[in-house]
Amino acid sequence: MLNYVESCLNVLEAGKKIYLDFISPIHCQICNSQCGDNQIIFRLCNQCFYSLDYSPDKEHLLNSIYSKKKGDDSALSSISSYAELTSDSNVELLIYALKYDYCSRIGFDFGKILGMKIANDSTYSTIDLIVPVPLHAARIRERTYNQSLYIAKGIQEIIHKRIENTCLQRIMYSGSQTLLNVSERSSNMSDTIFKVNNKDRIHNASILLVDDIFTTGATLEACANTLLLEGASCVHGITIASAPLR
Ligand SMILES: [Zn+2]
Predict the structure, then answer these.
(1) How much distance in Å is there from the Cα of 39 to the middle of ligand 1?
(2) pLDDT tens-digit readout, 59-96
(3) Cα of 46 to ligand 1 centre, how many Å?
(4) How far is the CA of 89 from the centre of ligand 1 (A)?
(5) Architecture of domain 53-242
(6) How much is the average pLDDT of 101-107?
(7) How far is the centre of ligand 1, averaged over its atoms, from the C-alpha of 214 (Å)?
(8) Which among 55, 56, 87, 169 has the fewest CB atoms less than 10 Å away?
């Protein structure tokens, strides 16, 4: 009897999927083709996923922050990213959907890819906590969710570390970074933009700091500076995508 009910439910579920695929098919955010059943990333066909350009390795990304800081040490112990924002890969279309089109699942799916990328890398073996880069409360009201939290949840699915979502807070509304050039972005991101609410939660912790895009590194650096000043032992940055290095 139980098997019969289970088969009926499976048939209903399959019927619902056929109906939804017919009335609202899911299309790839990049090439607009209809996505199949086994897509790795929501709203990205697997062909486009495998065509994404890889980001430079973590040493090159970290060096790009060093060079912008004119020889000073970076607050970040490492920075890692999956895809490079090139005109060929069009990955910014995906990031746009994640940030502005209520597609939080893109963040979760990419988070799992990032989790797999670092799971067997000894650089990340000491991670204690996952911290998403916070949005200002006004920005949360506009967008209704923080895309970095969903990326963090995907990473957590793989590496099984605690997400600390409230200890780091963005206290200054820094405006949109989209229209600023590189030096304007850096100067728009001072270390006083963030604060830590409960130092005990990050005391002596090795932190994986999560954001959607690495552009100048200014946002991740400002967060890392604040976390280190308030007692974290080290901060590693990780993002879905990185801008081409200059
Ligand atoms: Zn596609």
Answers:
(1) 10
(2) 888 888 777 665 567 899 999 999 999 877 788 888 99
(3) 7
(4) 10
(5) 3-Layer(aba) Sandwich (3.40)
(6) 90
(7) 23
(8) 87
DSSP character at residue 220: H
The two three-digit tokens of residue 183, written as one number: 């030096």
Residue 118 is predicted with a pLDDT of 95
Output the CA 102–ligand 1 centroid distance in Å: 19
**C-alpha torsion sign, points 83, 87, 91, 97:** positive
Per-residue pLDDT reduced to its tens digit, 167-224: 999 987 765 554 445 555 555 555 578 999 989 999 999 999 999 999 888 899 999 9
Distance 213 CA to ligand 1 centre (A): 20
Rounded CA separation 202/228 (Å): 9
CA of 79 from ligand 1 middle (Å) equals 27
Q: Which of 95, 240, 111 is nearest to 163 (CA)?
A: 111
**131-163 per-position pLDDT tens digit:** 999 999 888 888 889 999 999 999 999 999 999
Taking the centre of ligand 1 as the mean of its atom positions, its distance from the CA of residue 31, in whole angstroms, is 4
Q: pTM of this prediction?
A: 0.83
Rg of the chain's alpha carbons, rounded to an integer? 19
